[in-house]
Structures are given as structure tokens and as C-alpha cells.
Write a structure and sequence with these properties.
7 helices; alpha+beta; about 25% helix; disordered C terminus; 18 strands; nine-stranded mixed beta sheet
């Protein structure tokens, strides 16, 4: 792409101390636009600023919006790396297809992300556990109130230096098992990274926090029996001699990039990883028998998040000894070491910012 760069004349002050998550933003954004007759055009990097949007823009009324979330890491060698951006590009395309949004070519997605990070490379934190969170997103801009796919869109990339996703960091979290509210149903858009999914999750998550829990464990929409996701993350349970995660067959679960990474790493170790439906009664029974060893969530924001307790109407169920289990700790350390260039990238999962080509043959989406 030909990318026009307009540098800011008023650089923002970089944060000092606790970064939090998604509270401050870097100096620039990437943007390009789409019209049905022209396709994608006018790729540019410009200063971070409010965007002008018609009040009748379709995205404001019919939620035609898709986003991704990935991170750029400053390694121990001072090299900046993106973690599996090809997988994020592929998922972005799949989400756009589901929401009737024109595809952005994978190469354009990767180029946009890399150029944006390179432009604001000084914003990539040096602190351990910190990163530059990268948010590519697309939204309908056509001013039209009829219910149909829009004919105009904008694609943007913004960036935010972040610390730990949860305020308590890697400490185990308390999760409320939700058996009434629904995040996603079969035939819906649960497997897409679209704004509507996250709006649907807010009410139950807010209620769980009011009860003293950190997040929600979602169950299926039909029977509220089967485990699906935990908050905005995929979930893994160590049950007896199996490490189990819900299969993606239902179409209600986001195919997480970290989820895929964890499955591959565990299978490389020779662990018995199974993708299948998990009945919540099976989890309760495993706890009764003493075979519920660990529960943890996986996602870009937190990487791995251990679960200490599962909350039910009739009381809490403590997972293991309530602390960080060996699987969660080991996987977190292994993935972070890859992201920061502290371990050999035998999978070819990292892409060095400034590199014109993927770092290995595995850069092709699987």
C-alpha cells in the first residue's frame, strides 16, 4: 500500500507508573476508507483525534462493526514483535464476512498494523508485563437508516500502552457461573469478534461484579448446562487426566488466538488436550471427587488468567487449592517468553515490526 503519513504536531504525554488497560492512547492512528464503487482506498497514518461521523451512520444503529485485539511487545533485545498477527488477520476477515462487511485483504491488515506500530514505536513499553495493545477495527459510515449492509466503511488501527488486564494481575480470579443471561446462541454471531457480542455481555458481567466476582462463566443458551466462555476469554479445565476446552462446533465461541496457541503448546508437551462439550455438572462432580485440578481463561489481553473460585447460587466451589496452578503458570511464562524474545520461536508465531515478510512458514493461517 501507498501510505501517507501526517505526523502529529502536538505529541501526547506518555504515561508513567501504572498503565492500567486501555486508558491512554498513542499519538497516531492508521485509517483507510471503503466505498462500494472504489473498494478500499486512501491508506494513511494521521494524528489521534476524534472522528467525524454522520448521526445516521449505519454502525450507530445496526452495529455493523468488527474489531481485533493484538499486542506489540518490546523484547529483551529491544526488538518489537507482534504475536501471531496473521491469525488475527484471518479472524478479522471471517468476522467481516459474518457481518456483511467487505473484506480487508490479509496483507493490507498486516501492513496497516505494522506501519502503525512502527510509527508509534516509542510507545511500546519496556516494563515487564506491559505491551502496546493494538486495536484494528472497521465500522459502517454510510448515512442510511434502511436495514441492509452499508456501502461505506472506515478501517482504523489505534494503539494503547497497557499493563495487566485484571487489576489484581496474575492473581486467580473469582468467576460467577451464569445460568440465566445469554451471550450467544447457535446460529448467531458468537464466533465473530463484533461489537454486539460484547454489548450483550455487559449486563451479566456487571451483575457478577456486584456480587463480588471478577467475571462471568457463560453457559449455552439452550439448556444453560454446557460451559462456553469465561468473560471475554476462552476457558480450559484440567479434569482428571484431561485438559478440556469447549469445542468450536457450536458456532457460539470465539476461536481465540491464545486458545490455539495453548492447545498447540500443551499437545507438544504430550498433554491430553480434548476439545468437546463440558457439562457444568461434570465440573461439579470433578470437584467433589477431587479431580478438578485447574481452571483458567486464555486471551490476548490477559494471556492466561487462573480461576480460584466458581460461584453458584448455593455457594462457591474452590478450584484446586485456590492458587495459581502449574499449567496456568507454565503456559503464561512460556507464551510471554516467546512474545518478549526470551525463548526460541520454533513455531514462527512472532513477526518483527519492520520485517517485510513473516518470520517463518507458519505465518500462513491454519
Amino acid at each position: 500500500m501507498q501510505i501517507e503519513v501526517s505526523e502529529t504536531q502536538t505529541p501526547r504525554q506518555k504515561p508513567v507508573g501504572d498503565l492500567g488497560f486501555g486508558r491512554v492512547f498513542s499519538d497516531h492512528v492508521f485509517r483507510m476508507d471503503y466505498e462500494e464503487a472504489r473498494g478500499w482506498y486512501d491508506a494513511r497514518i494521521e494524528p489521534y483525534a476524534p472522528i467525524e461521523l454522520d448521526p445516521a451512520a449505519s454502525s450507530l444503529h445496526y452495529a455493523q462493526a468488527v474489531f481485533e485485539g493484538l499486542k506489540a511487545f518490546r523484547g529483551v533485545d529491544n526488538v518489537i514483535r507482534l504475536f501471531r498477527p496473521d491469525r488475527h488477520a484471518d479472524r478479522f476477515q471471517q468476522s467481516c464476512d459474518r457481518m456483511c462487511i467487505p473484506r480487508l485483504p490479509e496483507g493490507a491488515f498486516l501492513e496497516a498494523v505494522e506501519h502503525a506500530v512502527a510509527q508509534d514505536h516509542e510507545w511500546v513499553p519496556t516494563e515487564e508485563g506491559a505491551a502496546l495493545y493494538v486495536r484494528p477495527f472497521v465500522f459502517a459510515t454510510e448515512a442510511f437508516l434502511g436495514v441492509r449492509p452499508a456501502k461505506k466503511y472506515s478501517f482504523m488501527v489505534l494503539m494503547s500502552p497497557v499493563g495487566a488486564y485484571y487489576a489484581k494481575g496474575f492473581a486467580p480470579v473469582r468467576i460467577w457461573v451464569e445460568r440465566h443471561a445469554v451471550r450467544a446462541a447457535r446460529g448467531g454471531v458468537g464466533a465473530s469478534k463484533t461489537a454486539a457480542n460484547y454489548a450483550a455481555s455487559l449486563h451479566a458481567a456487571t451483575a457478577a461484579k456486584a456480587r463480588g466476582y471478577d467475571q462471568v462463566l457463560w453457559t449455552d443458551a439452550e439448556e444453560h448446562r454446557f460451559v462456553e466462555e469465561v468473560g471475554t476469554m476462552n476457558i480450559f479445565l484440567h479434569l482428571g487426566d484431561e485438559i478440556v476446552t469447549p469445542s468450536l462446533d457450536s458456532g457460539t465461541i470465539l476461536p481465540g488466538v491464545t486458545r490455539d496457541s495453548v492447545i498447540r503448546l500443551l499437545r507438544e508437551r504430550g498433554e491430553n488436550v480434548v476439545e468437546r462439550r463440558i457439562d457444568i455438572d461434570e465440573v461439579i462432580e470433578a470437584h467433589r471427587k477431587g479431580t478438578l485440578r485447574e481452571v483458567f481463561g486464555t486471551g490476548t489481553a490477559a494471556v492466561v488468567s487462573p480461576v480460584a473460585e466458581l460461584g453458584f447460587d448455593d455457594g462457591d466451589l474452590t478450584v484446586g487449592d485456590g492458587g495459581v496452578g502449574p499449567l496456568a503458570r507454565g503456559l503464561f511464562d512460556e507464551i510471554v517468553a516467546l512474545q518478549r524474545g526470551e525463548a526460541e520461536d520454533r513455531w514462527g508465531w512472532t513477526r518483527v515490526v519492520g520485517s517485510a515478510a513473516p518470520s517463518s512458514p507458519d505465518a500462513t493461517p491454519s
